[in-house]
Amino acid sequence: MTYISKIGLCLFLSGTLAIASNSILEKKSDLIQNGKTIGFVQILTPVEIIKSNKENSVIKIKGFRLENYPQMIVRDIKRKELYAEFKDETIANNSFKILKTYEDEYGEVWHEVEGEFTVSTNTLTKDKDNLYLNAKKTYERTCSMCHHLPLSTAYTVNQWPQQIESMMEQVALDDTTKNLIIKYLQQNAADAK
């Protein structure tokens, strides 16, 4: 490869990287495709911004889904942290490109998938630390009123949603706050890494 070709490649890659950007959802957001709401993406879900303006952003979501239940996109095969959910199976099947197929230890077939969708730009942030701090403070304040506060590593990614749901009779949290706490705990769970 010539020196000029290398410079051209570097300029191309730097331009590509400027367009693609990593971000997360700071609140649950509708997923829009062809002007229609087809599902939602959950708070604290990592996404790649493809293009953006003041109102809308095109994002790429990567995750895993069961072949026989394609409506739900999760973090990976073992850790079922919810990333996105779709209104129906047909929409889900038509919205994602299958990258790879896997079989888990129970014989279930999983697809590693990616898809591009439109979301409201005001639902995206790069400030994960601020969301984490808010979730941590809310978790500590709310959940230590009645009992000893378990560490985030006390449960697994798959166990945390049930633990928080079981407390909802004692504590009234709006869905956004509850989901923020669940996702924070899942991303810091015993098996999160």
UniProtKB/TrEMBL annotation:
Membrane-spanning residues: none
Keywords: Signal
GO molecular function terms listed in the Swiss-Prot or TrEMBL record: electron transfer activity; heme binding
Species this protein is from: Malaciobacter mytili LMG 24559
InterPro entries listed in its UniProt record: Cyt_c-like_dom_sf (IPR036909)
Protein name: Molybdopterin-containing oxidoreductase III, DMSO/TMAO/BSO reductase family, monoheme c-type cytochrome
Gene3D superfamilies on file: Cytochrome c-like domain
Signal peptide boundaries: 1-20
